[in-house]
Amino acid sequence: MPDEGVTSSHGKQCITVDTSNDIVRHQLRGMYQSWFLDYASYVILERAVPHITDGLKPVQRRILHSMKTLDDGRFNKVANIVGNTMQYHPHGDQSINDALVQLGQKELLVETQGNWGNVLTGASAAAGRYIEARLSPFALEVLYNAKTTDWTVSYDGRKPEPVTLPAKFPLLLVQGVEGIAVGLSSKILPHNFNEIIDAAIAYLREEPFTLYPDFVTGGFLDVTKYNDGERGGSVKIRAKIEKIDNRTLAITEIPFGKTTGTISDSIIRAAEKGKIKVRKVEDMTSENALILVHLLPGTSSDKAIDALYAFTDCELSISPNCCVISDKKPHFLGVSDVLRHSVDTTKNLLKRELEIQRGEIEENLHFASLERIFIEERIYKDKEFEEGESMDDVLIHIEKRLEPFTKSLIRDITRDDLLKLMEIKMKRILKFNSEEADRLIASYKERIAAINDHLAHLVDYTIAWYTSLKEKYGDAYPRRTVIRGFDNIEAAKVAEANERLYINREEGFIGTSLKKDEYVCNCSDIDDIIIFYKDGKYKIVKVQEKMFIGKNVLYVNVFKRNDQRTIYNVIYQNGKGGIYYMKRFAVTGITRDKEYDL
């Protein structure tokens, strides 16, 4: 018989000891499937991956909702915003503070005051008690409308919070996002504000469009393999490097995701390894990036620029992965799909807002018409009105008196309408002006007609709405990253020849550490070496400190792949006592460590 099992705090048996261990394996598998999958689902849906509807992670959405509840037009201390957000977000103040700082540094939804850090240097923001924030006018215009928001309750059931904010702009594309969940990740690169609007208008007009990333840090971008931001695509990003003089280079824009500190460190490491001849690196970044690279005398500045791209963080390759939450599941899409979904959402939200606005104006028109009839027909002076025995009798009388006018009203009269007429004060009745009432009614009808026209031409209305956004805010977001193709830089061609190659013919060794043996040539530590033997065999090997290659070596030197200019001349005899021949040939591309025969 097995021993008694161990019971969990929930009262369920978790582990039971058995000699066969079959029961143990079965229960652990069940625990893993239920508990771990629940945890993974929670991280994916509620923490790390943004929602396609508003482009926000839950912590960002809760911060922005919290800031709206606090919004009075003035700046609030970040510490107060964080404390207020903890009513909605159950994961601690530090995670909220970090997410708010990231929102503020993107300079789109949040206006900041104080030291919010520096995305160029990587400097962190000041403590939350010192810095302040408020919602930007853009955020207030595109992100909030309580009448079109779907609500749920907060984690403790005390506060309402939005399921998603009714965002009328693809925040996911303009801000970019990066998140690592359990089993998957999301990495969406930021795009240009104005180009997003242009693409949205093109989609509404059923015209083709293409979106490419744009980074606040500037630099150059190769989008040849971008693949619409889907999985499997990639982009190359380069720093902007300028020549000040023959001995000084200036890095004025850096790749996305790097800081001037990490760039400087990568240059110093490359110089220590002899990949580039640098005398000194100075990071002078303040408002704009500026790294001065001082070269050693005799160094080619053009070759140094290529070496910076080849051996340092001045050139990076980034692989985007557009993963979003839709219908409570993660989906892998392209940025064009995200844009189309956002534009369709915006069009539907604008339609709902127009319909809500029309309904409110129609209610105003309805009551204004009832009020005019009530006062002009002097219903309030009727004997039945003044001497009615009960409220119901009075309401029945008013409804009967209004009955001849019902055809001129936009809807049927309800009991609430009659009660509202009963609340009209005598002061308003005495000041009633028939001409003003007619003008008010006419203005309501004009506004309703204009809304109906917008609803009938919803695509044009949506285009006009996007155009107004671009006119209001577009000037603040010019393209900062230049799109252009890159030539591949072969590291072997720009590496400095900082090593010396030696050969020991008697023992059959070559390498950079054989300093007491025969000197062959200068080389770099990433070069290939070509070796010809006396029997007509030859091969390519990589430079090493010491390597056995065998004896009877005829010729050794650095090998340049695809080199058409280096011509080898070999004289050989056709058998013993035969005719001598000479062969001229180039060695362009062959497999490393494979032996070939002339």
**Coarse structural class:** alpha+beta
CATH 2nd-level architecture of the largest domain? Orthogonal Bundle
In total, the number of strands is 29
Main beta sheet: 4 strands, mixed
Please tally the helical runs, counting DSSP H or I stretches of 4 or more residues: 17
Give an overview in words.
By secondary structure, this protein is an alpha+beta fold. It folds into five domains: 41 residues, no CATH class; 119 residues, Topoisomerase II, domain 5; 84 residues, 2-Layer Sandwich (Gyrase A, domain 2), CATH 3.30.1360.40; 137 residues, Topoisomerase, domain 3; 101 residues, no CATH class. It is 37% helix and 21% strand. It has 17 helices and 29 strands. The strands form ten sheets. A four-stranded mixed beta sheet has the order 16-11-10-19. Strands 12-13-15-14 form a four-stranded antiparallel beta sheet, with helices on one face. α2 packs across α3, α3 packs across α4 and α10 runs antiparallel to α15. The longest helix has 42 residues.
List the helices and strands and how they pair.
Layout: E1 6-7, E2 13-15, H1 22-48, H2 58-70, E3 76-77, H3 78-85, H4 93-105, E4 110-113, E5 132-135, H5 137-142, E6 150-153, E7 160-164, H6 171-175, E8 177-180, E9 185-188, H7 193-204, E10 220-222, E11 235-238, E12 240-245, E13 248-253, H8 260-272, E14 278-283, E15 291-295, H9 301-311, E16 315-318, E17 323-326, E18 329-332, H10 335-376, H11 383-386, H12 391-402, H13 415-422, H14 426-430, H15 434-456, H16 458-473, E19 482-483, H17 491-494, E20 499-504, E21 509-511, E22 518-523, E23 528-533, E24 537-542, E25 547-548, E26 553-559, E27 568-573, E28 580-585, E29 596-597
Parallel strand pairs: 10-19
Antiparallel strand pairs: 1-2, 3-5, 4-5, 6-7, 8-9, 10-11, 11-16, 12-13, 13-15, 14-15, 17-18, 20-21, 20-22, 21-25, 23-24, 23-26, 24-29, 27-28
Helix pairs in contact: 2-3, 3-4, 7-16, 10-15
